[in-house]
Amino acid sequence: MRREHHLTTLDNGVRVTTEVVPGLRSVALGVFVGVGSRDETSANGGASHFIEHLLFRGTDTHDALTIAQVFDRFGSELNASTSREVTDLYTRVIDTQLDAAFSVIGGMVRSPLWAEIDSERDVVIEEIAMYEDTPDDLVHDLVGEAVFPDDPLGRPIIGSAESLAGLGVDEVAAHHRAFYTAPNVVVAAAGSVDHDALVALTMRELGDLRADARPVHRDAERRPVVPRTFLERDTEQFHVTISAAGLSRVDDRRFAAHVLDQLLGGGASSRLFQEVRERRGMAYSVYSFGAHYREIGQVGVYLGTRSENLEECLAVVRTEIDAVASGRFVDDEVERAKDAIKGRVVLSMESTASRMGRLGKSVLFGTELLDEAAVIARVDAVTDAAVAELAGELFNDADLAVAAIGPDAELFARAVDAFRGARR
């Protein structure tokens, strides 16, 4: 069923967008701010994520404990996230609690107090330490820096202990002042919501946000990738990522990219899962991944394997990528991949949180909001030839960065050399 969306822009530039989902008592609410790690410098790396934490430390109307108590009383949760391009706060509450929930969230966006900044910095440093101890996560940052060298898009979202040490109240407040401006904020809601009522709440809570011009976001500079990156650690496995630049969020070929990701390593029946894990037993975790940003994207493959399997694992990845790029598909795997994507789209539409998220980001990024039927039609239109062509383009050896965390640099170097020499 096609659902109606509403969009209102306040006088100061805040945009409010809603989607009514009949038959519900709940509403998913989110506030989206167009700022992320790619809007930072090396000196203030992690500032966007740090601010996300500090928003929960208190505002001019609610202290940290009250913020927690309000949402505990609702039987719901207030959460937030920071990515490379957006920071968002979101919750799901009963419709009668929307006013009270928004009064808390509005204060967090509008007037944080930057309370307990030193103790919260310590919390984030502990988060970084936890991340450093998780090589299957850390290796993604390692390859990001190799795919986007000397560019904010390749830096860790969380920042570093060194960059956080330089973030005091003045630096944090300046970053907030630069990006938490009215034209850079979108309020989105889906479920049991009245659009006009939400507009009135937004005017009350965010109507005084500064109407400064929307910040200018710098595009990533295209640079040659760093072909091989290694971080030596005393680990039982090598954690390996093979990655390259991908497609932007407005590239029409992104639907073919989703199909490629699904059939290559996106599920239990995918080529890499079947060949590396099921048939050879050489990895517990192996998958492909992809992301779409404003003007560029990223694609890649991850696997974790022991030393004795490393070279063979990479050879299997090489063989499967080349097979797809050559159009050597088996059975109905392209159609099965398309069916999986369409199924996820339909299932996600049963979640008000998913609807709210796609609605808010679509307005924030200025992208077309496709309904279920339109998405399914785009996926159905993907051809085998388009998938093969895209595999050859995105996983071109000259554009691939290979990064790993593991116990033996020489063994990794030999395996990568064999991987690059095995192209056929």
Walkthrough of the structure:
The chain is an alpha+beta fold and 424 residues long. It folds into 2 domains: 5-206, Cytochrome Bc1 Complex, Chain A, domain 1 (2-Layer Sandwich), CATH 3.30.830; 228-421, Metalloenzyme, LuxS/M16 peptidase-like (Cytochrome Bc1 Complex, Chain A, domain 1), CATH 3.30.830. The chain is 44% helix and 17% strand. It is built from 16 helices and 11 strands. A 6-stranded mixed sheet has the order 1-2-6-3-5-4, sandwiched between helices. The longest helix has 16 residues, at 117-132. The mean pLDDT is 95.
Provide the CATH architecture of the largest domain.
2-Layer Sandwich
Work out the helix count: 16
Radius of gyration computed on alpha carbons: 23 Å
Q: Indicate the percent of residues in helices.
A: 40-55%
Report strand order across the widest sheet.
Answer: 1-2-6-3-5-4
Low-confidence stretches: none
Proportion of residues in extended strands: 15-25%
Q: Main sheet?
A: 6 strands, mixed
Q: Structural class of the helices, strands and pairings?
A: alpha+beta
The tally of domains stands at: 2
Q: SSE order in H/E notation?
A: EEEHHEEHHHHHEHEEHHEEHHHHHEH
**First-last Cα distance:** 47 Å
Topology:
Blueprint (H helix, E strand, L loop, with lengths): L4 E5 L5 E6 L5 E8 L13 H8 L9 H11 L4 E4 L4 E8 L3 H13 L6 H16 L2 H13 L13 H5 L3 H11 L5 E7 L3 H12 L21 E5 L5 E9 L7 H12 L5 H8 L7 E7 L4 E9 L4 H16 L7 H16 L3 H14 L6 H9 L3 H11 L6 E6 L2 H13 L3
Parallel strand pairs: 2-6, 7-11
Antiparallel strand pairs: 1-2, 3-5, 3-6, 4-5, 8-10, 8-11, 9-10
